[in-house]
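User: Fold this; tokens only.

Assistant: Input:
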Amino acid sequence: MTMVIGLTGGIGSGKTTVANLFAAYHIDIIDADVIAREVVEPGTPGLQAIADKLGSDILLTDGSLNRSKLREAIFNDHSLKQWLNDLLHPMIREKMKADIEKTTSAYCLLVIPLMVENNLQTMTDRLLVVDVDESVQVQRTQQRDNVAAEQVRKILASQATREQRLAAADDVISNNGDAESLKQKVAELHAYYLTLSQSPAASN
């Protein structure tokens, strides 16, 4: 069984950048956000269930999911949000497990933004947290998504705190610095994970 390294961090922490640096070493990346889109693609049971529940006007003309309409619907209806989570979370978990089974690299990276919030670190052998100062998170997210600082702070408030994530972490990458120091930290962790993946205890 391949060793699974969980990767998480708050909004604007730089998870994608870190994942891409690991991918450059030919490490398989399993991204929960990508899988969440895959399980509601046209022709999937996930999309069919949503259309059955909310009607065909939740679909765009090409048959794909109208995401902004769905966001609006669940924003105004907590029970609908719960229904959607109950529908999709097991599908996403099953697909993540299947993708882990198919990995061929020495270890794989399982990227889940809300890993600690949903206690999904149970799917991993080690948890790597990308840690960053809150002021940096706000600034980066504002620039990336063109949103107000207040909106970013609301998102931060809905996520696990830095302290909660760090308490769950086996390894931590601080991403307050420049791109070069981040690259160096990933190189060191990659070497460390390769060593771990070769030890008999790595796959329990």
